[in-house]
Amino acid sequence: RILTATLRSSRVSLQGPLGRVRVSPSTGTLPATSCNPLTMSRSHATATTARGLVEASGNQFVVRCPDSVGVVHLDPTKVRQILLNLLSNAAKFTRDGSISLDVGRERSEASDTVLLVVRDTGIGMSREQVSGLFRAFSQVHSKGHQAKGTGLGLVLSRQFCELMGGDLTVESIPGKGSVFTARLPAGVPEP
Description:
The protein is α+β, with helices and mostly antiparallel strands. The protein has helices at about 1-10, 35-40, 45-55, 75-90, 125-130, 155-165; strands at about 10-15, 20-25, 35, 60-65, 70-75, 100-105, 110-120, 165-175, 175-185. It is globular.
């Protein structure tokens, strides 16, 4: 019931054969508003939840978001969910290490992009593990580590990024850690 309620509230539906998750914007438009990523990354609810998850595993947690990032026009609820999913995953696979969130902005004549980068010094993943990472209900298993969760957090996070016109990518090295980068346009158009 909890999973169904979460999927329903996020405009997510399970469609087709098992393992197919789709975020459907057909029931409405994105509620994009002006927001400051510095405030969002340090907001009470997001920061408290993330800090608790990260530090419960003995990790150091660092948030870097320079004032120069400025104000952006995004869906703050989806951005918070992306951050919590990425930080929660980093905490699951990192023990007595470090996890960081770096918020940045890339501006050019062609685009204006917000970067949300979560780095961890956890167990890392092989290329084979990375290749199946964004499949619904799939989890990374490694020797001596039992994954917990539904296997939907990264799928939903990538779908949310795509819904806002962005993407979610990962780089990882076994035994060294992972870097997840959400690239989002700084100005999701208003409905």
